[in-house]
């Protein structure tokens, strides 16, 4: 009887020890931390790429445009003489004295008149005209550096020509305005703004900050 009891006790002890060992192994497997997978690394790389795409672009890296050299219908530049403009497009639709209290800055230092023609506006001082807003119409286009801007110019067209300016506009959440540097005046905060409506270019504005 003594030997039989010993064998039973030994068998029970072995069974218990085996069960504990299995439980510990299961716990270890459950709490094990997997090594980083390729998908995790790829995800981090993609996130980093997105962040870089949305970094602000320095102002001096934005593409510039010389508004004074932009040509209207390949005839006269946006900055020209009154006599030359009238020879190409005729008299003004209207001449208006500005409300000086609402003007922060202007292209001429002396007092001028607003010269309106076909929806576009120019500053007129003596015999000099300087455009500050040009309207694109089916009959009015402008060209610069081999590029023609028309009322059919799209955001995608601008992105091909001025990728940095468009990317910065998108970084800032704009879908209707692209800003280029004023290349006529170095180290200036003035700019040339292209405005869109329903995805098409409608006007170009010379902007001088206060």
Provide structural commentary.
The chain has 210 residues and is of the alpha+beta class. Helix content is 33%, strand content 28%. Among the domains are: 76-135, no CATH class; 139-210, no CATH class. It is built from five helices and 13 strands. Helix 4 crosses helix 5. The model is unreliable at 19-53 (pLDDT under 50). The protein is globular and about 45 Å long. Strands 1, 4, 5, 6, 7, 8, 11, 12 and 13 form a nine-stranded mixed β-sheet that branches. A four-stranded antiparallel β-sheet has the order 3-2-9-10.
List keywords for this structure.
single chain, 210 residues, alpha+beta, nine-stranded mixed beta sheet, four-stranded antiparallel beta sheet, 5 helices, 13 strands, 28% strand, Lipoprotein
Concise synopsis of the structure shown:
The chain has 210 residues and is an alpha+beta fold.
Residue fraction in strands: 25-35%
Poorly predicted ranges = 19-53
The overall pLDDT, averaged over residues, is 82
Shape label: globular
What structural class do you assign from the helix and strand content?
alpha+beta
Helix content: 25-40%
* N-to-C span: 108 Å
């Amino acid at each position: 009887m003594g030997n039989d009891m010993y064998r039973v006790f030994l068998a029970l002890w072995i069974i218990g020890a085996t069960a504990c060992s299995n439980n510990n192994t299961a716990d270890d497997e459950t709490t094990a931390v997997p090594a980083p997978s390729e998908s995790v690394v790829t995800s981090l790389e993609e996130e980093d790429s997105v962040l870089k795409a949305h970094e602000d672009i320095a102002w001096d890296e934005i593409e510039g445009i010389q508004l004074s050299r932009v040509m209207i219908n390949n005839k006269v530049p946006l900055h020209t003489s009154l006599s030359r403009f009238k020879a190409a497009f005729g008299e003004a639709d209207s001449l208006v004295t500005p409300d000086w209290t609402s003007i922060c800055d202007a292209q001429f230092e002396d007092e001028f008149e607003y010269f309106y023609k076909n929806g576009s506006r120019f500053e007129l001082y003596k015999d000099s005209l300087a455009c500050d807003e040009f309207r694109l119409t089916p009959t009015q286009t402008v060209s610069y550096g081999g590029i023609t801007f028309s009322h059919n110019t799209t955001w995608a067209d601008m992105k091909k020509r001025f990728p940095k300016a468009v990317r910065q506009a998108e970084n800032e959440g704009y879908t209707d305005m692209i800003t280029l540097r004023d290349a006529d005046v170095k180290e200036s905060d003035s700019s040339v703004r292209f405005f869109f409506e329903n995805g098409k270019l409608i006007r170009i504005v010379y902007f001088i900050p206060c």
